[in-house]
């Protein structure tokens, strides 16, 4: 149906301007009921979008600053692949102190979502020690030697507790900061995994000890290589994962 679905948020709902940063989705600022919001149109399944929108509602109620789904006129949180969410004010992190605030927000996210069910059809990094595929990941498309390196990195996380991870928090464009709050946007990569994957931040703002940082950084590089394979960025990330 495409952007025609926006009419389900009201006759006056309209797109305003395309927003940068969308890779798997078409993202625009939109106007709904006279207020600025964000619309994201993609190809995710209804089950996938239900998981994400329910998560965002829960996190909002728990006090985190996240984009909150705006219901359609008949109360649905998404329609025909389109989600409309509140617009978050703020700018990107600029200092190590800013990134430390981001780390604190991520740890609160992890605390709030212990035991959360996995996103439909996704796999965690440690699931991929045995599974071959999960959402955008297809290890069969990677060189066997690269898969072995990724799995060796993920094996160091085996047995650890899991929770929801944002999935791409060290991207400056995914953080909206003000003096009073830290907002995380673009939850398209969020899923259940080991929290270390979220904590590889600039200047080690999460304060991980050397050994813990190495484990997290290697696992994160392996994850991003597998998710993005085989573009230039994925090849670069795989090169950061040590040989077995």
TrEMBL record:
InterPro entries: Aminoglycoside_PTrfase (IPR002575), Kinase-like_dom_sf (IPR011009). Residues 16-200 form the Aminoglycoside phosphotransferase domain. Keywords: Transferase. GO terms for molecular function: transferase activity. This is Phosphotransferase enzyme family protein. It comes from Asanoa ishikariensis. The lineage of its organism: Bacteria, Bacillati, Actinomycetota, Actinomycetes, Micromonosporales.
């Amino acid at each position: 149906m495409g952007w025609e679905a926006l009419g389900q948020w009201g006759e006056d709902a309209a797109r305003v301007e395309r927003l940068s940063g969308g890779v798997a989705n078409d993202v625009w600022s939109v106007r709904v009921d006279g207020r600025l919001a964000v619309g994201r149109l993609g190809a995710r399944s209804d089950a996938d979008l239900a998981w994400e929108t329910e998560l965002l509602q829960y996190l909002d109620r728990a006090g985190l600053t996240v984009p909150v789904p705006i219901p359609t006129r008949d109360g649905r949180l998404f329609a025909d692949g389109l989600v409309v969410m509140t617009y978050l004010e703020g700018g990107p992190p600029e200092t190590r102190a800013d990134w430390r605030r981001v780390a604190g927000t991520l740890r609160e996210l992890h605390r709030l979502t212990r035991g959360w069910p996995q996103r439909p059809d996704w796999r965690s990094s440690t699931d991929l020690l045995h599974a071959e595929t999960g959402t955008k990941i297809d290890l069969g498309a990677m060189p066997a030697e690269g898969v072995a390196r990724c799995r060796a990195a993920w094996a160091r996380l085996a047995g650890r507790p899991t929770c929801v991870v944002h999935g791409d928090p060290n991207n400056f464009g995914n953080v909206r900061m003000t003096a009073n709050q830290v907002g995380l946007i673009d939850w398209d990569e969020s899923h259940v995994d080991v929290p270390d994957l979220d904590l590889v931040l600039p200047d080690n703002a999460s304060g991980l000890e050397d050994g813990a940082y190495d484990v997290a950084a290697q696992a994160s590089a392996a994850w991003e290589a597998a998710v993005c394979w085989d573009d230039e960025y994925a090849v670069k990330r795989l090169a950061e994962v040590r040989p077995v």
